[in-house]
Predict the structure.
Amino acid sequence: MAYSSFSPVRRSRRRRWLLAVFIGAVVLGLILFAVRNRTEARSVADYLAVTETAVEQQSQAADDLEATFNSLTGIDRPELMRRIEVMHAAAAEAGAAIDSVIVPASAAEAHGYLMVATRSWERALGLLADAVIAVLDEDDASALDEALVLLRVGDTAYVEFLARVGDFDDSIASGDFEAIVFVDVDGPVRLDTGTVGTRLRSVYELGEHRNISVTAVTEPEPVGERNNVPIVPQSDSFLVQAIVANEGNETEEQISVTLELIPADRDVPRIVITQTVASLAPGDAKTCVFDGIELIPGGLYELVIRARTAQDESPEDNAWRMVFYRNEDA
């Protein structure tokens, strides 16, 4: 049998070819691994950039909550409600950003804890306004207790998130997250149900206060006097603008505003006109205009404006009066 003299050469070439293929596969694997690592690092970096911004908002809300409960004696009820609303809005915005972020596989566990934290904080701050009102007006601290428990749940979950972020390989990505504590039992203000409830009840400005006041101006306004009684000059018309103000800290509804014009001459009928202010928020005012009022030249009148609500702690400013003469025609 004859053997080819080129067989060893072919086998040598085949081995070199297989070695080249193997080396190429190794190099390709290393390249893919490096690319995959770079892609993962970029994904984690993008994830941390979004979450760091959102966490900063949550941190600010936590600081604001502590500052608010540390300064209760310096704020009134509407301002406290406004601050809580701002905190809740910030927490909701941060939570929405965290819910929508793209989560790389290596950050999935950490993200789970962060979602628990942000959702607990957001829900707690959403309950807080009604919880404060329940404590102040109904002496019911159950909702406050629920809100504080949720804040603590968020604090605990956030600690676990920080631990998972700390386990990230520094060669992939790292984050710089500050600690967040909404309910710091060792802080300058103890945020537990009993302490917060007591502080809320002790601040007078935070209690429910209802007070409607009224003042008025006439058009034309009085000019001069007769026997110390103002004189309203002659004019084609006479109208009264009643300014009703809510000086309390609760929204008032269905405020009855009544004008009564009482002539000194009993033969002249008195005029009574009533308007209703549907709703008036704390600190707001509304003007009710009464026009089409006829005055007799030379007549003496008493003008009374009254504003009435179902409850009012200061009824002494619910009425405005003016006695005046209507000037005689020239």
Notes: The chain is about 45% helix and 20% strand. The CA atoms of residues 77 and 206 lie 5 Å apart. The longest strand covers residues 252-263. Residues 25-38 have pLDDT under 50 and may be disordered.
